[in-house]
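Handout, section B. The chain below has 403 residues.
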Amino acid sequence: MPPIPILFDDNKGRLAPLNDLRPAFDIRTGALTTLDRATCLFGPPAALFVPTTHSVLTAQAHPNIPINTTPTSPSSGSFLLLNARCPVPNPDWSNLLLNHAILESQSSDLLVAHLPAASIPSALAGNTTGLTTTRLEGHHLLSRPWHIRTFRDPAINLDLDLLTRDARPRTIPGVTTLGNHPTSIHGSARISPTVVLDTEAGPIVLAADAVIRPGAIILGPAYIGEHSTILERTLIKPFTAIGPHCKIAGEVGGTIFQSHANKAHDGHLGDSWIGQWANLGAGTTNSNLLNTYDQVIARATPNGPNERTGQQFLGAVIGDHVKFAICSRIMTGSILHTGCMFAQTAAISGCIAPFTWATDAGTRTYRLDKFIEVAKAVMSRRKLTPTSAYLTRLAELHTQTSS
């Protein structure tokens, strides 16, 4: 019997805003979240371990999975303990020998371990005594927000391979299809005539109830999630993954949308990650390449050090609930934290603190009561109401910003 997966978020690194409102395994790191990818590879998890700050939100998001509780039933067999910051696990890890563990060589952090239930608490505490350990060279764990770009391509490639293995061709009148890579189109997806699906460079997946409007062009590898709409004449370029319930227009390439976000007008967006409930005003455009073609330097926190990202192409990491006025300009390597509002004519650049209210008059902290009022209004348009735990977490983040 193969080991049953357990994912744990060790809360290491500086990942905000990616993980402000979700544990690391719920970040959309490709077409899928890391948890969904692990489930496809190893089966449904027996338990999830998260920081205390995220325990209630995680329990609400995954009501049928034990949170921060070690399974003890003998019938459960052994367990495969997976680090939630590892976006691209090796499928062969299911064959790892019992009481063996693999560490990331660079950080010495645990990547995966095959354990009996009794050994899980010790391993979660960072104790690998008694385990046979090996070290895996290279970079395998998210520890900065721009690492979402580092792991984007292998994550999307793995996801689309998983999602298209059983794909059957579907001919749609008036739709032009190019290339030999597979296309997976859910039966409930609606695709208008004059759409072009180009799989010359990689597969395309259109999930349930996706809507592709006339004149749209989608270049694989690409994923369009459930209930998302690609508007008229939109260009979706390779390595783009649109999560559920998004509305997209303009030119978008190499970008991951977590879910429930809008870019419904013209403008370029490249090599970026977009959080939930973000909204990009008409004409908003970002840069994803320096004029010098140099490696992008970025900061994970407003007062943190400049760091080399290892990326030549890096757009922006845009947190949940970030809003942009029309014709906003976002510079290369910007890290825009949760809850910011931008209505300024100057270009947006650098690392911007959470809940920043930015206009031509200057910057101040977005009032929490006003922010909550807007968030509730935005979410109600999708017939959703924030839970008390969600509002509490937003208040905690706001307090951290104000202190």
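Note. Residues 388-402 form the longest helix (15 residues). Compare this with the example in section A.
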